[in-house]
Amino acid sequence: MRLYGHEIDPKTLPGHVGIIMDGNGRWAKAKGLSRSAGHEAGFRALDRLLNANKEIGVKVLTFYAFSTENWKRPAIEVKFLMAMAKKVIVEYLDTLMANDIRFVMTGTFEGLSSDLRDMIQGAMERSRHCKSYILNMAFNYGGRKEIIDAVRRIAADSAEKKLKPDTIDDKKFAEYLYSPGIPDPDLIIRTSGELRLSNFLLWESAYSELWFTKKLWPDFHPKDFCKAIFDFQHRKRRFGKV
Ligand code: FPP
Q1: CATH of the domain at 99
Q2: Ligand 1 atom 7 nearest Cα
Q3: In testing the pocket of ligand 1, which one of 24, 64, 79, 192 has its CB within 8 Å of the most ligand atoms?
Q4: Angle between helices 222-233 and 35-56 (to 10 degrees)
Q5: Pocket lining for ligand 1, CB < 6 angstroms
Q6: Domain containing residue 113
């Protein structure tokens, strides 16, 4: 089917796309706006994509909204992003649920205020029955921390004899990650011209196709997303085989 100017095969859509939304700050600077205004424009780009995805049909979208490294940003920006997370839940959850989109957070609650934690948990609980799509927010997320947290829980379960070390394989390990049950991303998109993963889904991205664009995140449109899917559908994935 033709979507946003690209010929997309609905049978081989990526099941899960991870998105590193980079470039909000540079977008704002170029326009003489505040970084906060850049993040607001970034949220509009996210909303635009979720809307378009009702037609495109990717089941799971993971957005990198706040990394464990982002705490090092100026306090005012951190405060703004935390307030934005609350606002998104308060103003957006009903829309998500009306579109049968389940809200999931991948990340740690460590360092989050108790009201934000309660709001996130409430949103995950309330939308648990939604089955068509998953909006997975990587929030307060770091890939290495996710792996370390899994190792700690595995070590604790082993010490309590709930887990035999020789039964630990890829599948078992993944059960200890933040969002077990969510398939690995088939495709990871990063905007703003940076060519790295920056601690995003380190374990889960082992076989992901990577796609980069110089566009800044607030300028990212569904047609760019469809171009990424088109390119994905023309790559050969071998998973180590010949
Ligand atoms: C990266 O751009 C963007 C972020 C760290 C935040 C992304 C957040 C949103 C799009 C809004 C939705 C967020 C929440 C919390 C629900 P940057 O600031 O690193 O850009 P720069 O590299 O140009 O400075």
Answers
A1: 3.40.1180.10
A2: 65
A3: 24
A4: 60
A5: 21-26, 39, 42-43, 46, 65-66, 70, 81, 84-85, 88
A6: 15-142+184-231
Give the DSSP H/E element, type plus range, for residue 120: helix 114-126
The catalytic position among 24, 47, 51, 70 is 70
pLDDT in tens, 55-104: 999 999 999 999 999 999 999 999 999 999 999 999 899 999 999 999 99
Q: Which of the residues in the chain have pLDDT under 50?
A: none
Count: domains in the chain: 1
Q: Is residue 22 flagged as an active site residue?
A: yes
- CA–CA dist 153, 177 (Å, integer): 10
Look at ligand 1, atom 6, and give the residue with the nearest C-alpha: 65
Does 225 map to a domain? yes
Tell me how long the chain is.
242
The answer to whether 62 and 19 have CB atoms below 8 angstroms apart is: yes
Catalytic residue among 22, 24, 53, 136: 22
Q: Which atom of ligand 1 is nearest to the CA of 82?
A: 15
Q: Distance between CA atoms of 181 and 177, rounded to whole angstroms? A: 10
User: Does the residue 28 lie in any domain?
Assistant: yes
Query: Cα of 39 to ligand 1 centre, how many Å?
Result: 5
Strand (E) or helix (H) holding 80: helix 75-98
For residue 57, being part of any structural domain is answered with yes
Q: Residue 179: inside a domain, yes or no?
A: no
